[in-house]
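We close this part of the discussion by returning to an individual protein. The encoding preserves chain order, so positions in sequence and tokens coincide. The sequence in question and its structure tokens are set out directly beneath this paragraph:

===
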Amino acid sequence: MADRNQKLIMSEYDPSHKVYWAVTEQFQKIRDISDITVKNYLIAGYHIQLNFIGSSLVDCLTPAFAHLSWKPSDQESSSQSSQPALTIFIWDAHSTNMAIPSLGISHADYWSAGQVANNCKDHIKVTIGTQPKVINILDFRSQQGIFWMESIHDFENYDISYERAAPLVRILLWWLERKQLFFLHAAAVGTSQSCILIVGDGGAGKSTTALACWHQGMNYISDDFCMVSLEPDPRVFSLYNTGKLSLNSQKLFERLDQPLPSFSFWDHEKAVLFTAQHTPERVMPSLPIKAILMPQIVDSHSSQLILASPTQGIRTLAPSTLRILTSLAGSRDWTFTSIGKLVKQLPVYQFKVGQDLKAVYQCVFDLLLS
């Protein structure tokens, strides 16, 4: 059980603070009358604790984090170091019978990407989604976040399957940016020693390449979203163990000796699976980055690597990352600067992804061993 005496720090008045006050007031009411399910994870090396008020959202939001699950030992549990670096409180109005009251903010109080204006200090960040109603809050001062939604049934009634594939992405992104990590729209696979970062817009072949390599024995880090640090050397950190494939890409896998595992659900036009449910020993929390690949699916049997320039790397990596980052209310300037540094530290390759997925695997494997 979570510590029921834990306090959420209240903040000064502001549109974002006004939302914070309204939501935390409801939290204070329900935490003493509801069971709390606690899940601990090590994400990018940080102890992050999820506190579910009620159990309705646990099975929806936790499978993507399964590979990062962490259980402090008895000795660690009694020490200060076992305290979470970030705590996120999660609940829905329907199962707890505790709706959020009228927030009292207007359209003028919103910035882009659903972010509520913050005119005083930058220690609070708030976004509100309207269909369905989802609220994300992070208080950097207290190191506490809140994820609230109206009902678990919204997963069925609205197209928000991304919340299952990439749960809590806004709160995690905002918090990890303060730890000098930056967000990338990229996949990553590798050996036990290093990995390849696979970048490009939707449909370029990131997921096809990543899942082809994973399915044939490589370690898996990410398929879509990940975090990266530059110091002391470039390193990628896993957020989720999800993998996505379009129908067209799934047809390529039918040619392999072993079929792909069954998919868990659909996210837009892609089927989603959780790799940690099938090969937990090969889903890595982090690996050093050896090179950057820019895939392009071609109508050819063979695959080919072609050395590219850092400029080509920026042109491929930056647009999709910054577009997604804008929708998540992340830090565009910091990320763009970091991408520029990343492509100067690593070799960049164009990767012509052929129809033979065994050859795709071999190309990536040979590059990792070179």
